[in-house]
Amino acid sequence: MARLQSLIAKAVEQIEEEKALSLVEFSLRSGEDPLAVLGEAKRGLEEVIAKYNQGELFLADLVVAADIFRQVQVRALGADAEDERCENPHVVFGTVQSDIHDIGKNITIAAMRYYGLRVLDLGVDVPPRTFVEYAGKTGAPIVCLSGLISDAYEAMRKTVSLLKRKYRGGGPVTIIGGLVNESVCEYVGADFWAKDCNKGAELCASILHERNLFSARTARKDK
Amino acid sequence: MTTANDLYEERLERILTAVRLERPDRVPVVPLGDSFCARHQGVKLSEFCTNPELSNQVMLKCFMELGEVDGIQHTNFYVHNLSTAWLSRLKIPGRDLPEDELWQVDEVELMSESDYDAIINDGFRPFIERFYLERLDNLGEKLPVFFMSVPSAMQAMKDHGIVPFSPAIVTIPYELFCGGRSMHQFLRDLYRIPDKVQAAMDVAIRDMIEDARMMCGMIKPIAAWVGGWRAASEFISPRHWQRFVFPYYKQMVEAVVEEGVIAVLHFDSDWTRDLEYLRELPAKRIVFSPDGSTDIFKAKQVLGDHACIMGDVPASLLSLGTVEKVEEYCKRLIEEIGPAGFILAQGCDIPPNARPENVAAMIASVKKFGA
Description:
The complex is a heterodimer.
Chain A: H1 2-13, H2 17-29, H3 34-53, H4 59-77, E1 91-95, H5 103-114, E2 119-121, H6 128-138, E3 142-147, H7 152-167, E4 173-178, H8 182-188, E5 192-194, H9 197-210, H10 216-222
Chain B: H1 4-19, H2 34-40, H3 45-48, H4 52-66, E1 71-72, H5 81-86, E2 89-91, E3 104-106, H6 113-122, H7 124-135, H8 139-142, H9 144-159, E4 163-164, E5 168-170, H10 173-181, H11 183-192, H12 194-219, E6 223-226, H13 238-258, E7 262-267, E8 286-290, H14 296-303, E9 308-313, H15 315-320, H16 323-336, E10 342-346, H17 356-369
Parallel strand pairs in B: 1-4, 5-6, 6-7, 7-8, 8-9, 9-10
Antiparallel strand pairs in B: 2-3
């Protein structure tokens, strides 16, 4: 069975959806440990992420491989695996007011959930006060603001300023993503910026690690 | 006395010299600023984006107030055109959004997997007509008002001595399908059903090229945008790009050039990886126009003896930067990308919140540094 499992990792790594899912179903029907099966799929996805980070694979590869992993998760752990993980979130995430772009946000959230982060997705066109409200309600250590139009800068700035005012300079770490760069980050007053979905997810995981709030690599196994 | 026509001829020759990769008397500047122009002129975006005649007047007035431009990329704006490029519904100011908020593409899955079969079996044109009617709220009925307005909008620019540079927009099936299916589903399609996607693209490109040729014949533009947004190299692997993107661009660009029209590769996001391929497109008849994401200096190295380069003052510099920073970047562009084979412009589109003094500085920089 070890060979079968390594085939699962290989199929995910090679982004072969049909093959990966048939192997998973066969393994589960044969009585394999669902966590071991999931672990193999995760190994495959880790290879994809590594190649993505090295520039050998691209966003489309990452999106599709993450999608295969999510389907393996549902098969191995049941529908609950797809929960929104919004209780005590690590991250409150939304596209800022006046902007309805959500592709980058959704991909980043998928990557974050893969790393084991609990993410509360507030959706798109989220007013500054809503971010502040949910940051307060949940006590999330990170707030991520996404925006793809330049009008989003103002909404990001307002949101960050409201958060800083409420927490008097303390409070959650703020990260902006989308059509952003160093000068936008400076203008908005956010703590960090990220253009790349996976790097944004990794940044969140490392911030949580630094603060001893999270053990990302073991989170999935703990479940 | 210099007439508007003299000015027009002088500016057109300046632009065409750059496209031929020769050195003009000075670097030309050919901006584009849809929502920026509306905000600058105090016109509500709801009115600007639904009235092509008004948008033409607003663009002209805006750029004439900000300096001396050689041309303007688009002659007017009409929000419903965006649906034709991405097969998506829109959020429109005054209808779905407050009157002065920016229009946006509302990307949901409007196109199903079975639509690929419909295209393959019944043809692209019947599919698109039904799609416009049933899924895009009778879009076909809204478009003629724009097409009818283009000739007079072009003439209005010429009457002021300004070159209406690229009033036509075409693209490739990848962009349409990606928008219609939504990006996530479409990327999955490339893996799950690649042959079917390719077969549908092969059918669609024939009609899209025919339409492009017809539009070039009717409008007789100097240049046309051959737009690329989601098809950028940064999103997909080389094997997918070489299969689903480049062959279709090549066909479309060659068709546009055959019609006597310059092809402006209006490419958003990062295309750096595949710049070398663009050398297969007709030399000195194309303009590579990145949005600030592609490495424009690398583009000069790879394409400098093949394609004119246009760009790429970034949106964030125009909205958050200072006049000094804008001048510094424009100077670098003019000196390192130009002065031959270069047209100065913003990357993509001037953002609505750009500072007018920054836009004016960009326009003025060609006189300051580009002669």
